[in-house]
Design brief:
Layout lengths: L2 E9 L2 E7 L4 E5 L6 H13 L7 H4 L7 E7 L4 E6 L4 E5 L2 E3 L10 E4 L11 H15 L1 H21 L6 H41 L5 E6 L6 H10 L1 H7 L10 E6 L2 E2 H4 L2 H23 L4 E5 L7 H10 L5 E5 L4
Parallel strand pairs: 3-13, 8-12, 12-13
Antiparallel strand pairs: 1-2, 1-4, 4-5, 5-6, 6-7, 9-10, 10-11
Length: 330
Amino acid sequence: MIIKSIKLTNFRNHSTYKLTCEDETSLILGSNGWGKTSVLEAIYILTRGKSFRATDSEILNHNADYYRIELEYTSGEITTATYDGKTKNFIILDKKTKRLPKKYKYPIILFLPSDLNLISHSPGRRREYFDRIFSEFDDSYSTSLSKYQKALKQRNELLKTDSLTKDTLFSWNLMLAKYGTNLTKLRSEFINEINSNLTNVYRSIAENTDEINIVYQTEAPESEQKYLSRLEDCFERDHYLGHTTFGIHRDDYLFEFNHSLADGSASRGETRSIILALKFIEADLVYQKLHQKPIILLDDVFSELDETRRRHLVKNFKDNQVIITSVDMI
């Protein structure tokens, strides 16, 4: 056990709530709309530094002017986050900081019901999913992604102005080329790592001989100079449309099932086995790269899985601390 307890005050629809964790698996029971996911969200904020689904103003209970969450580890360390309607602060060892320091972050494997539809989701949702995974075990990925997104936002704002020249965009193009090239390299490496085990892990779940593969789809070149040239070549079109039409923010991840697109060829059960396999590999990668057993947060996914896949889920995560939400006893 890693987390001992989590306490919420004015967090979403919880005026006050405390979860005391069990040694291995903790179950949060409640009807739909009760706020089970909010408990996992609070844990995620205090272990990763931000929510996986909303801004702080959206999280704040509408009847309150602040929220506070407090997480106690089994080591005795306590991490607290507060938000007063304007500013969020983390408090650790009586020291206040606006961001959760790296050394106080802990790896999390988050499993949401929407993840089971990942294959049929939009490219944007798949990018968001893999960005979250890769950021878990590589700080350089998270940093490059943050800087790329900030540069992209600034470039897009400039593209909407009338009096604009290529020179005005040059510094932002340089940043996009630098961080975009780095992210392309990392994404390719990480997908190759996942693919090296994906079929075998899938077969252990589905008990068949199907082949699974993820194709990382990008238009980005390998060199910064070529990336920069592509951005400059798109100047007229981008200015006309008012946004950046080339870059790694348009990447996609395509799932293949027996050499065909899984979306349309894999059954519902096969699709869920693919996602389970992906989650198991994600946990293994986190352990290999960070040498820490991640905490597993499962948000109401048991109701979406049949008995066989539930057993595989329990078996593969038996050595981790697991926190589950559910509407029924499981």
